[in-house]
Design goal:
11 helices, 3-stranded antiparallel beta sheet, Band_7, alpha+beta, coiled coil, membrane
Length: about 475
């Protein structure tokens, strides 16, 4: 039992020992530095004063490792090694030219990375690490004012990197003595309360603006020249295109005009051919009508006239022969009576009576012959009139057919005398036959108004009777 109690006590002691070791063993982070105090530093003799002092070797610095802190003997402190971004602003800093400037900058500051710098920083900021930023701002502001006072505005503006480097160099000693390191320092902005900085850039701005205006003018001039050249090329191309289009249009219009004129010319040729054929048909029809008239009218009329004339001639010859016979008989009788009168003593008287009787007989014979001739001619005229009464339409139509070509020839004579003729008409050359036809119609109308002879009406009536229709129907058909 006592053994178990001893073993239990040993186990508890071991557990407590482990817990103690675990709780007192510390490991530093990458941005941390452990400072373990509790040992005595080494004695150091000051050669100037001859006094002995204790150095900082008693303060153990641990970076990135672990350390066991002895309870009650040693004490552990932690120093933050992280970088700090510190803004620095000064207003009214007077430059070497007496110009008041406002300067804004930014600094990156951290605690030094070796043991000595960490010990220095721990001595000054371990219990008040938040004071690192104000301290750094004061140091940098002082360095800024000091350096601005020795530079011109142009130097500050034109070479900010050198200006910032001078500030860093100026403040380095002050910061290093406090265990701090200035990583970077940059000048963000430099302004003034007046117009010096604005006026400082005006000449350069004016020069640049002038150069820009000149460059812009040159560019605009070059652009205008290029535009004019392009427009000239476009105009030349358009002119060439317009000329080509005009040439093509001229050729197209000529072809279209030729094609358009081909129809009227062909129609005119067809009309001319039709007129020629119609003229041939009219000539053949007139010849046929002439033959029909010759066969049906003239020859029967001439035969009848010849018969009547022969009969009248026969009767006249018979009458003359009878008259001559009567004359001879009368003369013979008269001579016989004269002979008898002479024999009786009245011969002279009988002779005179016989001569008078003979003269009377001769006159009667001549009158009878003349009467016979007149009767024969009258009878022949009656026969001709009767024949024309039976064949009046054909005779009139034949005479009109004979006369109309002569009228048309006389009407067309002025046109036939033209050597070259240019027709300006929407109807083309086909208007010529219609013009000749209109001239013939006007000629017939003029003949009707001057002589009273209506050839057109006679033709219509003759055609109407020949076709068995009315005059109005024939007129409508002829029209």
């Amino acid at each position: 039992m006592a053994l178990l109690t001893a073993l239990g006590g040993l186990v508890v002691l071991l557990v407590l020992l482990v817990l103690l070791v675990t709780s007192r063993y510390k490991v530093a982070g990458p941005n941390q530095a452990f400072i373990v105090t509790g040992r005595k530093g080494k004695a150091v003799l000051n050669p100037e004063t001859g006094q002995l002092s204790t150095d900082l070797s008693g303060q153990k610095v641990v970076l990135g490792g672990g350390v066991f802190v002895i309870p009650f003997v040693q004490k552990l402190a932690t120093m933050d090694l992280s970088s700090r971004r510190i803004s620095v602003q000064i207003r009214g800093a007077v430059s070497g030219q007496g110009i008041k400037l406002n300067v804004e900058g930014v600094a990156i500051v951290k605690v030094g990375g070796n043991a000595d710098q960490i010990r220095l920083a721990a001595q000054r900021f371990l219990s008040q690490q938040q004071d690192v930023e104000p301290f750094t701002q004061e140091v940098l502001a002082g360095a800024l004012r000091s350096i601005v006072g020795g530079l011109t505005v142009e130097q500050i503006i034109r070479d900010r990197a050198a200006f910032a480097q001078r500030v860093a160099d100026e403040s380095e000693n002050s910061l290093t003595g406090q265990g701090l390191i200035l990583d970077t320092f940059q000048i963000q902005d430099v302004t003034d309360d007046g117009t010096y900085l604005a006026d400082l850039g005006r000449p350069e701005a004016a020069r640049i603006q002038q150069a820009a205006a000149i460059a812009e003018a040159n560019a605009r001039q070059a652009a205008e020249q290029a535009k004019i050249a392009a427009e000239q090329e476009i105009a030349v191309s358009q002119r060439t295109l317009a000329l080509k289009q005009a040439e093509i249009k001229s050729e197209t219009d000529a072809a279209a005009a030729q094609a358009a004129a081909a129809g009227p010319l062909a129609q005119a040729d067809r009309d001319q051919a039709i007129l020629t054929e119609q003229e041939k048909v009219a000539v053949r029809r007139a010849a046929l009508t002439e033959r029909d008239l010759e066969t049906q009218v003239r020859k029967p009329a001439d035969a009848e006239r010849y018969r009547v004339e022969q009969e009248a001639e026969g009767r006249r010859n018979a009458e003359i022969a009878a008259a001559d016979a009567r004359k001879a008989a009368t003369i013979a009788a008269a001579e016989a009576k004269a002979q008898e009168a002479r024999l009786t003593g009245e011969a002279e008287k009988a002779r005179r009576t016989a001569e008078a009787e003979a003269t009377r007989a001769e006159g009667e014979a001549q009158a009878a012959a003349t009467l016979a001739v007149g009767q024969a001619e009258a009878e022949a005229m009656d026969k001709r009139a009767e024949a024309f009464a039976h064949y009046n339409d054909a005779a009139v139509l034949q005479m009109l057919v004979e006369v109309l070509p002569q009228i048309a020839k006389e009407v067309a004579a002025p046109i036939a005398g033209i050597d070259q003729l240019t027709v300006i008409s929407t109807e083309g050359a086909g208007a010529l036959p219609r013009q000749v036809n209109d001239n013939v119609v006007q000629t017939l109308a003029m003949l009707k108004s001057s002589t009273g002879l209506d050839l057109e009406s006679m033709v219509h009536q003759a055609v109407g009777r020949a076709t068995g229709g009315s005059t109005d129907g024939a007129t409508s058909t002829a029209s």
